[in-house]
Amino acid sequence: MTQVLVTATGDTYHAFLRCPALAEEAQELGHPVDPVDQPLKGLRQTACPECWPTISGFDDWRDLEMEVERLGDSPYEALFVKNVLRDVADLDPAEVLPKRDVEVAPGVTQHVDFVLPSPVGHRVAVQVDHPEAEGLQAALEDAGWGYVSLTKEQVTEQSALCVAQINAALRDPKAPRPTEQARAGGAPAPKAPQAAQGPAAPAEAPAPKSGLGLVILGALALLTIIVLVLVLL
Ligand SMILES: [Zn+2]
Prior knowledge:
- The structure is a single chain.
- By secondary structure, the protein is of the alpha/beta class.
- The protein has a domain at 88-233.
- Helix content is 36%, strand content 18%.
- The protein is built from eight helices and eight strands.
- The strands form three sheets. It has a four-stranded mixed beta sheet with strand order 5-6-7-8. Strands 1-3 form a two-stranded antiparallel ribbon.
- A hairpin with a 5-residue loop joins strand 6 and strand 7.
- Helix 2 runs antiparallel to helix 3 (75-83).
- Zinc ion is lined by residues 14, 19, 21, 48, 50-51.
């Protein structure tokens, strides 16, 4: 948990007492500002651009990590930035959107922990240490999104597996969720055969008809039956 310095009137939180911005604030007000130590979580202020960049190891990922700790409801969300997102190749921290309401169908929004931009055009929603919201994955995937849900154990102990899952979802909008075996620490699940998929639709566009999922399911069932019959013959 990160402790930061805040004043009653300032709109930024600081790393240390001798930050020049604190002296300026006191000078403008004409009296001492008496900074106090506060946990970052729940603060409304943003990171002071004068003192934080001078802290050793501070970079755009650490800035995002603090933003997530400030806004988040689980400490594992900031850990996800530190342990996983930082190691995802070609991901720009400035394009990672924490804590977003996304429209999965006209008039239907869902809250997700992270929205990631994908190099192939769709977007990926990530839930961290989050109870499964019924229908969220299906609604997001029907709207052309990728979806990854990670447990706190995965984020803490299996960061390489998490990075692999994020990479797969960024490159494939219908990347499957990990199986129970993968969640328990086994190898990543092999990909299920996929029906032909159309171009990824942005979430703002009208969602494909909900019947699409059923059609794909039906096609897969039919395919399975055909394969079974062929095997039996
Ligand atoms: Zn400062």
